[in-house]
Structure formats: C-alpha cells, structure tokens
Amino acid sequence: xxxxxxxxxANDIKKELSNEISLLKKTHNIIPxxxxxxxxxxxxxxxxxxxxxxxxxxxxxxSEKIVFPNNVTEEKIFSSIKKLxxxxxxxxILVQLPLPNHLDQLRIMEKIKPxxxxxxxxxxxxxxxANRDESGFIxxxxxxxxxxxxxxxxxxxxxxxxxxxxxxxxxxxxxxxxLNRNATVTICHIKTDNLKKxxxxxxxxxxxxxxxxxxxxDMVKDGVIIIDAGFSRVEGKIVGDADFENLKEKSSHxxxxxxxxxxxxxxxxxxNTVLAAKKNF
Length: 281
Known about the structure:
The protein has about 280 residues and is of the alpha/beta class. It has helices at about 5-30, 45-60, 75-85, 105-110, 125-130, 140-150, 170-180, 195-200, 245, 260-280; strands spanning about 1-5, 35-40, 60-70, 90-95, 160-165, 185-190, 205, 225-230, 230-235, 235-240, 255. The protein folds into two domains: about 30-115, Leucine Dehydrogenase, chain A, domain 1 (Rossmann fold, 3-Layer(aba) Sandwich); about 140-260, 3-Layer(aba) Sandwich (Rossmann fold), CATH 3.40.50.720. Strand 2 (about 35-40), helix 2 and strand 3 (about 60-70) form a beta-alpha-beta unit.
C-alpha cells in the first residue's frame, strides 16, 4: 500500500508558489490578491475559509474576506462582486459553497469575471473545459485530484476510472479532465443502484459522496488506486467514503481520511490565484 500524502505534495507546491510570488513582486511589483465571499454561518464553510486565508498568508498572497448574513439578497452579492471585479488589487474571487437555498449559484458565478474566477465555476471557464480547452481556470478539487494521480501514473490513457460524485464542483469537471487524457470514465453517485458493479473492476476509484465507509473491501479489486475526497464526522472522528483501515492493504495507493485531497484543493486555489495575477502582464 502506498499512502498518498496530499499534505506533503501540497506543501511542495506552496513552496514553489511562494518563490513565484516573491519574483512577481520583485520584477513586476504585483502581489496576487484573493477575495473570499462567505455567506451565512455554516461551520464547515467558516473552517474552509479560515484555512484558505491562512494558506494565503503563509505564501504571501494578499487576501480579503467579505461576510454576509444568511438572508443576504442576491443584489448585495452582485454589488460586492462588481466592486471586486473592478479592484486591481484582487486577482481572484471565490464565493464559498454551499450557498443558502434562496440564492442562485449559477447567477452568482456568472457575475465573477472569468479572468478572476479562480474556482472555475463561471460558465465561460466551465464551457472551455467542456470543449477540451484547459486554458481557463480549472475547479480546484478536480485539479488537485488530477495532480495526485499524475504523481502516481505516467499516463491515465485507457485506465478504467469510476467517479462517485456528479456535482458541477467535483464529478463533472473531473470527468472532463480525465476524458481529455483518454481515460475510460464512469460516473456514479449516491443514488446509483448496485454501486459495486461499477467499482469492482475499476483501476482507479475517486469518491466524494460524503457517505462514511461507502467503499468497502469487497467492492474493489487488488491494486486499485483510491482517491477519497469524501468527508464525514462519525462520533467526533473524521471519516472518508473509503473504509480506509480495511482497504489500505488491498489498494496500491490510497489517500487518508485527512491530509489527502483537502490540502491539494487549497494548493490549487493558491496556484490559480497566482496564475490570475500573472495574466496581468
């Protein structure tokens, strides 16, 4: 079993980005800037935003946080995004998900300039990816997962890959990235009947269902690679979608419940912010 240490890989990326930021400041007098919009009081969202701001501080990215109450109107969010779009100090804009039910995610993402859409959710960037064009911003979790896989395998061509998530945040953009590399991709989700049918012959399983221990030892073949982006709390303990303790010996590579995909998501957000800043010259 090879443990995929996402924390170490992410730290290596952050060191490289820190050097890039120092060079940007020295040669172009540019400090990459990221603005995060947090809506409501979701505990998980607060934690993620805090981690993102801490990571920015560690490598020299300027960061701002705009906080709105749960009952904020779309018009107020649009107004805030407009100001950030026009602010030259801000190169990347992120609206923390999930949003309160009364807000339209697509309408909000449409308001972010594509060149500042470091989460990759604006329809322009999503449309580029759907057309095999990866020159726009790629959503951070799929980008991080792809990075991990490319550290393990020289090529994904011909690999049978099962994704358990069909959201626009992870599953769909990830499928497009993998198809661009000629993998054979199957998309499942928590409503899929007989999930084992789709996982038992997969070379790679990528899961982000948020169902504790969904993937069990009898559902996978020997030597499978498992990327677990699921997150749940069970009796105060963080648990992934994969039954880690039983699967770690059967898999060739596997991410742990913590320190796997999460740090990579943040590292890719930082990378996208630096890329956005570099597009200014």
